[in-house]
Amino acid sequence: MRKVLFLLGFLFPTLLLSQELNCTVSVIAQQTGNDNNVVFKTLEKQLNEFINNTKWTEKTFKAEERINCSMVINVSNYENDAFNATLQVSSSRPIFNSTYSSPVYNYNDRDFNFQYLEFQNLVYNPQQFESNLISVLSFHVYMILAMDADTFSLNGGDEYFAQAQTIANYSQQLNGQGWKLEDGLQSRFALIDNLLSPTFEEVRSTMYVYHIEALDLMSDNIKKGKEAIIASLSELQKVHRRRPNSFVLRVFFDAKSDEIMDILSGGPSVNITEALDILNRIAPMHSQKWRNIKF
After folding, report:
1. Is there a domain that residue 59 lies in?
2. Of 90, 115, 140, the domain-final residue
3. Sheet holding 67-79: strands in order across?
């Protein structure tokens, strides 16, 4: 058997190593009152295959390099082929020389309405609208790829953010929520527009410094790593001064607030008075967590 698997790996390396994501897709339908309907299980199975088997980039990922992520679809209403739902997306990346995975992307998409017929073909077209189901999921796939790439190199996610924006642009032909400027300050449109704007450039540079120059070095020097985290967070003050309480800062701290609280509470001790002042100013929505920091 091992010889067969080895031969398959030799003959078809892209089949085994090409996919970029290790994603768990869950479909929860309790709110519909009919969560035993087989269509939800079929949808869940098809979406897991679609996300994990689609080739999203030109790069080759080894199995251990695939990005761990999850998508939880909570269906609130279902009638014929029309679904009303929300989508919780999250991803993480491993920290160098440790068993710890750091949360990177955590987004609650509340405008996820789509049509789906059981066993319909799910295909992603990078330049053309297929369906709102495909567009929303593909948009978040590229957000996961972009955010992850930004943690490994400065602005490393540019090409993936650009593709997320392309998806947002061609999906505007639909009447669905979340794709247009008028859909509000917390829409998919607002998210990608903010992240590609120079107004919020420090958010992306902080993602790089926070991971490469802080978390990835903590196995060698925890105190130095903690100090680097504080220094990286101070850069976000520039964004706050330009756009107080901005949505993109909220997205950053939705992913990072628990981690920051835990790291700053642990030893060795560092002077975090300034850090607490910064955190309470730029992320007041997490003030309870900042009060829980022990030092």
Report:
1. yes
2. 140
3. 21-28, 67-79, 82-94, 101-115
Q: What is the mean pLDDT of residues 140-161?
A: 98
Bridge partner residues of 229 (DSSP)? none
Q: Looking up tokens 């220094």, which residue turns up?
A: 231
Q: What pLDDT score was predicted for residue 10?
A: 41
> Distances in Å between the alpha carbon of 74 and those of 86, 87, 150, 197?
5, 6, 29, 31
Strand partners for 79: 82
Check: CB of residue 261 under 8 Å from CB of residue 289.
yes
- Cα-Cα-Cα-Cα torsion 208, 212, 215, 219, nearest 10 degrees, comes to 180
Q: Does any domain span residue 121?
A: yes
Parent domain of 247? 207-295
- When pLDDT is cut at 50, 70 and 90, the band that residue 183 belongs to is confident
Instruction: Give the pLDDT of residue 11.
Output: 42
Pair 30, 118 in one domain: yes
Angle at 113 between CA 24 and CA 88, to 5 degrees: 35
Q: What is the Cα 130 distance to its own chain's centre?
A: 22
Maximum CA pair distance of the chain? 61
pLDDT digits 0-9 by tens, 5-45: 333 344 444 344 458 999 999 999 999 998 889 999 999 99
Asked whether the predicted pLDDT for residue 209 surpasses 80, the reply is yes
Q: Is residue 226 part of a domain?
A: yes
* Continuous H helices in 122-246: 132-150, 158-170, 188-195, 201-212, 222-234, 236-242
For residues 264 and 214, give the distance between their C-alpha atoms in angstroms, rounded to a whole number.
Answer: 12
Domain count for the chain, please give it: 2
Nearest CA-CA partner of 91 in 59, 69, 109? 69
Model pLDDT for residues 95-140, shown as the tens digit of each residue = 999 999 999 999 999 989 999 999 999 999 999 999 999 999 999 9
Range list of β-strands (E), the chain: 21-28, 67-79, 82-94, 101-115
